[in-house]
Amino acid sequence: MPEQVESTSKLNVSSEIKSPSYDLTKFRLKRILNNNSKCKSITLLGTFPDLSETDAAIVVFEKNAYRESDVATGVSANKESEPEPKPSYFSTDLQVRTDFINNIYASFQCVPTQQLCAVKGTVIYPATDKHIEKYSICQKYIINETPDLYKSVTLPYISTSQFSLDWVYNILEHKQETERIVFEDTDPENGFILLPDLKWDGRNVDNLYLLGIVRKRDIKSLRDLNASHLPLLQNLRQSAKQAIQQRYGLNPTQLRMYFHYQPSFYHLHVHINPIRNDAPGIWCEKSHMLDTVINNLELVPDYYQRASLPFVLYEGNKLLDLYDEQLEVRTVSTQQANEADDVGPEEAPEAFTDEEPEEARQCKRIKLSTPEKDSNEAELVATPCA
Ligand code: G7M
Question: Is the keyword Hydrolase in the record (predicted)?
């Protein structure tokens, strides 16, 4: 069903609500806004040309979650109350194509009965720029930060514009969140406070998310760590594991302990959550395991002053502009886009082959093939996806 759209300002009390009617099959694609392999959804920007050449439409297709009743087997229909058998994956309608069978392992492509193939479709029409922004993915860039770049670009930036650390100092000074403290070591050099992260509701241990905030105030991030901090890091690792085992009954070997680089807050803190749960921000381009950090410092005392540390910057971050001035970070992507534009229309569908590795497919800028070229051709470029 089309979303109801307010055609006039909210201030107008007699605002008229109109429900635009459109034919989904007449949708014409202009750009892929997002292609999320995890959610199995794709978000498209386009128009309904039979209604308007200019009004933007957003269409989202999302594969439905499985219902347990759809995989029932051997259930015959109750003749009186249920004359029709319920659709099931294991019906004679199931089409099966064998990919391969190897020993005890087999892989198939299955097309279930038509009733189970539905895809959830959502349409926003007409969509505003704000809708388009909301449904678009944000461009991200990897910066390989050398020690020199840290000194000349990152450090000056974080020294002048970083988020306030008041909330951290409030915790360390027992002014806020005192009752939430799980464990505290008051040693000025090697001490820390362990408490729930803002993101954790404090109830479900499956989603446990704690922060270990060090007492020392002169360690901004991983970059400042050296071998003199090993006793602090070892104490943090050992004491936090013990405290978590005692309080939550979690096995220390089931905990993920890591630093973010770059962090949002430049006062050293370690993130702790169970490995069985995918916490936000655990990607390899952002996280550094505490065990690895300790080991690196044991091997090379000034490892983090000598290493190049990759990290991610998002479009809209001022630091990205500063790096762009130095390294032309964005220009590389433009070149890739130009290369994609040079691809002939007959080659374009290759960009969508499912055989391609997910990362390559998502990061490539894709030129969509269209029946006729139009003046909006520049828009026919898919953005890379998260
Ligand atoms: O990316 P970074 O390593 O800087 O992460 C900082 C963490 O601090 C995030 O996981 C936030 O959820 C958490 N956090 C942020 N604030 C403002 C607070 C707060 O006031 N209290 C607590 N307990 N955690 C916070």
Answer: yes
